[in-house]
Amino acid sequence: MKLLAATALAVTMATTAMADDDDFVRVQSASDVGATMDALEAAVGSAGATVFARVDHAAGAASVDMELADAQLLIFGNPKLGTPAMQDDPLAGLVLPLRVLVYEDGEGKVWLAYQEPEEMFDDMDIVDDAPYLAMMAGALSKLTAAAAGN
Predict the structure, then answer these.
(1) Contact, 57 vs 68, CB < 8 A?
(2) What's the maximum distance between 2 C-alpha atoms anywhere in the chain?
(3) Which residues does 94 contact at the CB level (< 8 Å), separation at least 6?
(4) How many whole angstroms separate alpha carbon 44 and alpha carbon 9?
(5) I want to staple 112 with a disulfide (CB 3.0 to 4.6 A). Which of 27, 73, 74, 132 is the partner?
(6) What is the pLDDT of residues 37-85, one digit of tens each?
(7) Cα separation of 103 and 114, whole Å?
(8) The CATH number of the domain where 105 resides is what?
(9) What percent of the chain has pLDDT over 70?
(10) pLDDT confidence of residue 19
(11) Residue 37 in contact with residue 31, Cβ under 8 Å?
(12) Residue 59, H or E segment
């Protein structure tokens, strides 16, 4: 257990991620949104997780004649991690499966962003040291680093 938490922490610290006061982690990518999302989707598949949806927010905006900077959301998960969370509190289904947003900011930089798992479940009956939280955090860190090219 301690080894798993230490490994997750090391992976998180090794990436170029920035955690903000708003409990989101952002990882800068050197590629555009589409290529970064393709890399993320490939990394998720290689890790054995299931991709449930890829949402193109900019295309949605364009479909109603509105403009939005390039932004895509990947929804994915692994029942081995998500099921224990939902066993601890069924409301975990409100924030699962996991989600990563890839977007272009106002300066033209591309970012991958996700909410820290401990924060996602903060208002639920899930203890902060639940083993799946460290596993989710480690997976998100590893997958976003791979997609960003880090």
Answers:
(1) yes
(2) 51
(3) none
(4) 20
(5) 27
(6) 999 999 999 999 999 999 999 999 999 999 999 999 999 999 999 999 9
(7) 11
(8) 3.30.310.70
(9) 86
(10) 53
(11) no
(12) helix 57-62
